[in-house]
Amino acid sequence: MSTTNADTDVTLRAWPAPNKEALTMQDLLAQVSQLATERGHLRDVTEQSLQHEIEASKHDLGLIADDSEQQDKDKPEEQLMKEKLEEIHLARIEMLKKLEFAAFHAGNAMNLVNLCLSRDPTKNLESAYTPMFKGFNIPRGSFGVDKGISLEESGRAEDITLHEDLQKRHEVVVKGSKMEALDWSTNSLLKAATELEKEVRKETKYWEEILSISGKGWSLQRTRGNTRNAPYAVHYGLPEANSRFKSRALAPLRMNKNGGIILDPNLRLKPKTLRVRIMENEQIVGTSHLPAQEELNKHDIEHSIQLSRDSLFEEELFYEMSMETRQLLGYGVELRDSTIHIATPTVIGQASQRKILIDCIDRDDQLGLQPNQPQNWLAQNIAEVLRLLLAHEHRMRLYRRSQVPPPMVDHGRQQSSPRLLRTLLAMFSHLDAVDSLHAYIHAAVKTLNSAGLDVAVEASRESLWVKLTDNIKNSENTDISATDQILQAFVKAFDATASITLPLSGVQQESIVIATRTYIGQPVFGSEHKLTLPPSLAKVLTLEPDQPRQFKFSSTRDAASYLDWILALYVAHDFLANEYSGRSSKRSEDPRLIILSKGSGKGRVKEDEIVIELDKGELKAKITSNAQSDTEAIRDSHTWNGAQAQPSLKDKVKSWIG
Amino acid sequence: MHELLLYGQVPLARHEQVLKILAGVAAMQPRRVRERRIIYKPTKQPEEPGAHLSRRGGTQNVAGKPVKQIGTKDLFYQHLVQKLSDNDFGHDNGRPLSAEVKPGQEPKWSLEFYDLLDTGDRGVSIRQTSSISLLSGNPHAWMVAAGPHQFVSEYYIEGHRFVHGNVVIFLHRILHEPGVRSLETAPKTHPPPFAALQPLDPSGAYILEAKVRVHDFNQTTVLDNAVREIAAFQDQMKGCVELALPDRLALDPRVKWKSPNPPSAMRPR
Fold first, then answer.
1. Which of B31, B162, B222 sits opposite A410 (nearest CB)?
2. Where are the domains of chain B?
3. pLDDT at position B227
4. Contact at CB, B219 and A403, closer than 8 angstroms
5. Region Disordered: start and end of each range (chain A) (predicted)?
6. Which class is domain B2-46+63-256?
7. Phi, psi of B230 (to 5 degrees)
């Protein structure tokens, strides 16, 4: 056997059998174990059984051999050959058929699996399909492909009827659903219409209310961000209010379900009002009442807006006053239990201690309780004045703001707080000081007149008030309204003047001028009387001409007692001395005058001393003799108290001296 | 004193609208302002640069003219400003010009000096100004004598003023009397009727001037605040009126000095 050309000449030969004779021990044992598995245990293998077996197998083989031998014998050799070939062909065809069958089914199985897997788009399985399956063009991941004829195309009678039936049914369904859709659309249209109507009604109502608010003069503005439910807001605060209250001045007008305006929480706050009470001897004798107001429907939105505006104003007023109390402690103003207590200056001759209480209370609390108290008018006036002053302050803020500002400097301009309580206090203090002083002056002058002295008095409580109307009429300041010009006169310092005209020894009449100035703040901090003496009276006082002839008194009592003294001095040292010129002499700074007259004895000179006293509007003249001696013997005295028909001082003194 | 300035233009058609917007911004009613401005030109020769240094014992200076000390070598035009009211127009009572005011009244006449705009770049124009109020006397006679000055021309300003915080907003336009002005040698003693005046810009456009005044230019915090305030206003007005910096040299108040060599050319009027 050559190894070089193995394909060309192959010799089919049985594998050389192993040398049976030389069985190795291992082979033998293997054969034994094989036989044991084939035939059971060696013990059962007997010679006899083996003989039987051989016999049986010989018999079987003999039968088969007999059969074939018989057929073979029937046919000739050639036919046999042909038959054999045919048989082989058949077998081959059979085999191919089965193979094809198997291949087809395997392909199907493969396609199925592929189809199942083709659901996954990431897998590319196109090449794995069988070519026939590929030709179907079945979409990926699909199942159940059916290919048939539609009903319309089929010509069968039952199919036609079925088709017509189906079509009829289809039409009915179409009609039904069309009607349903129409029904639905009518419904929704109706609903939309009602919705629209509702909206329109709502909008109309909202706009009506908005218009009625705007028609009443409230300023409306768009809300920021344009909120859906509240496109507008009402601005009811005052434009120049304190910034703390400015932010509260706006309330959005929200729309409720029916289009009405919902009250904003800002508008629903309990309105507050200022209450002024007058307390005398721990008893309330006067209470301010609510500001007059037109009757509005209680639930009207305008009403609540108005109440809010008023409340805001009153709260600001109270806030400003409470701030002001901090610097007015020295004037007897204090804030206790959210009530401002103001002690008014006690009027001379009035024992009762009067106090003003100001607080801010709920508006509704005050309604109903309106006892008729004697001082209600005062309380009401005070409340009104405070309101007027704050309104004035607001207008002045606008005025100041619209002036050209001074150049900027590094320290900011401080904003002064409005003078509300200070104005009130200044007014009380001024009226008190001026009235008591003027009352005194008038009494003194009347007494002097009754004593035959030609003394005149001219007094005004406040110099600016006297010519207020003229000032306003002639005012050239068009930026400030007349109201504010009036109120401006009250915020400024008050000046009162009184002049007592005296017939002096000189040719012309001269007068003592008393100017009273009141201002709560720099530089007087209250009321102050400034007394200016005329130059000729300064001579009486033996003042040097360059000495100031002005004297300042911070209390009325001091001023009055000084006036007493200076008038008495005038009467003694000027009036009487003039009358007895050459015969009189002054020995002291007191209002005493010594008049020399002829005595009873010859050559004797009588010395009479006249003492003038002026106290509390009473003029008293005394005559004493022997001025040199220490013991003063009052010879006679007379008192003038302003009553008519009294002898004049001149006559009296003449009668005394003789 | 220094001024921080921004200018914008408002066409006549928008004047009413801008006026209303400004009233809303400033939360105040507009204040009508009418002014007459008379321009004077110094006639003396400018000093040589450095001439003031070499001078000894200089007592030649005219007293009471602090504005002259500001520029050392430049000469500036001066403005005399008269505040007017509606009644002042067209009433010739034959009296000469007088700055007389009663005590307590606001002065009517003032002398305004404007320096050249500052060169710094802060987004606004800054210039030094000074204003002197005149309380008595004939302002024209005084101006001619002090200086000496020469009358150049006069014009009128009408407009509305607003105050918004520290920003003074002045929406105005310049009016003049049509005619040959170059023949005039002295200001009119009384303004002509208001109707006889015509806007200098024939379209009648208005100028919006935003101004913040600062007392001390060297205090940076104050100046920063002022710049911030005017810039905030500029920002607020964006879309309504565009406020911008004017060209620095367009507002040059200096007198161009020509050598008096041909004497005939020196005095054209």
1. B222
2. 2-46+63-256
3. 92
4. no
5. 58-77, 628-658
6. mainly beta
7. -75, -35
